[in-house]
Backbone:
């Protein structure tokens, strides 16, 4: 009996239905194909048609991934907000990575420079002799008395 | 060290500006078809295997080899496009017996919405589905509707960037229909 109960609980937790898709959750991840902007900020006729298409797919009980797959089937991969990773569009991935790398290198160079400026100057020359040390003490004592 | 760092910054900035310029230039509409037509020349019509709207299977311009093809880019979300569909259907019926056809290229459209217009206007000519817009890009398309008339040798002889009217069709089609392949 316990085993059956445990199995039932396991099934409930592991085979839970995919979360219900919603228009706001999807439209910020797809493009208005004609206007070239994200669907959630587009007000054109083609954007309205895409939104109607998404609503129909949701009404059919499809989850988010299935709706996105249906969009790709209808409009091609360009409908997804992720830029394609080939040709010139590859720059969308490479440029931020390159800039991040340059930033890290820049920070490294700046940090090295700052450390060098902040470190105390190395003592110059030889240590004072007894005579000079006595003179210095005398001068400092005279300065303190003023 | 300072000298080298500043050169690296200048180089990175130059690369970014170059990349931006290339990106802008590469997205500009291709005007080679317009230029050729303006010079009185005909250019080979770009072709692609595309799904046929509502009929299944694939089709292309090559299927109409030897025919005059009135290639019309349209979409159900484009009002001027749908307004000229009845004229194109009448044109198709008028030229079909003379080894010619109208061929639609349905641009970035929801197929159900496009099919509603096919049924409403009882369109008897086929439409290819340019679902990602790549086919239209190859024609340098900028705004819709756009129509290209392709001669029997598969070359673009005329183009209309905007809605067609009866006068333009009457002026453009007869000489091409009279040509031999």
Residues:
């Amino acid at each position: 009996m316990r085993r059956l109960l445990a199995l039932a609980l396991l099934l409930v937790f592991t085979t839970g239905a995919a979360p219900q898709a919603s228009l706001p959750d999807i439209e910020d991840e797809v493009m208005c194909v004609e206007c070239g902007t994200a669907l959630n900020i587009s007000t054109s006729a083609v954007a309205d048609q895409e939104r109607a298409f998404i609503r129909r797919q949701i009404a059919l009980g499809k989850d988010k991934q299935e709706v996105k797959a249906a969009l790709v089937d209808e409009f091609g991969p360009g409908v997804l907000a992720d830029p394609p990773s080939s040709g010139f569009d590859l720059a969308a991935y490479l440029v931020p990575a390159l800039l991040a790398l340059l930033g890290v290198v820049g920070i490294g160079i700046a940090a090295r420079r700052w450390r060098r400026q902040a470190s105390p100057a190395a003592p110059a020359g030889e240590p004072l002799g007894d005579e000079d040390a006595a003179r210095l003490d005398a001068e400092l004592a005279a300065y303190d008395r003023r | 060290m300072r000298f080298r760092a500043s050169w690296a910054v200048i180089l990175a900035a130059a690369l970014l500006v170059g990349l931006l310029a290339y990106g802008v230039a590469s997205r500009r509409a291709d005007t080679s078809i317009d230029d050729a037509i303006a010079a009185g020349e005909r250019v080979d019509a770009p072709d692609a295997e595309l799904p046929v709207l509502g009929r299944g299977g694939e089709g292309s311009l090559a299927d109409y080899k030897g025919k005059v093809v009135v290639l019309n880019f349209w979409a159900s979300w484009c009002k001027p496009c749908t307004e000229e569909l009845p004229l194109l259907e009448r044109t198709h019926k008028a030229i079909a017996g003379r080894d010619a056809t109208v061929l639609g290229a349905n641009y970035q459209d929801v197929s159900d919405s496009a099919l509603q217009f096919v049924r409403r206007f009882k369109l008897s000519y086929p439409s290819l589905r340019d679902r990602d817009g790549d086919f239209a890009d190859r024609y340098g398309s900028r705004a819709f509707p756009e129509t290209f008339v392709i001669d029997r040798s598969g070359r673009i002889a005329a183009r209309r960037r905007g809605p067609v009217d009866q006068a333009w069709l009457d002026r453009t089609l007869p000489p091409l229909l009279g040509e031999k392949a």
In short: The radius of gyration of chain B is 21 Å. The longest strand of chain B covers residues 100-107. The CA atoms of residues 14 and 77 of chain B lie 41 Å apart. The domain at 31-177 of chain B is CATH 3.40.30.10 (Glutaredoxin).
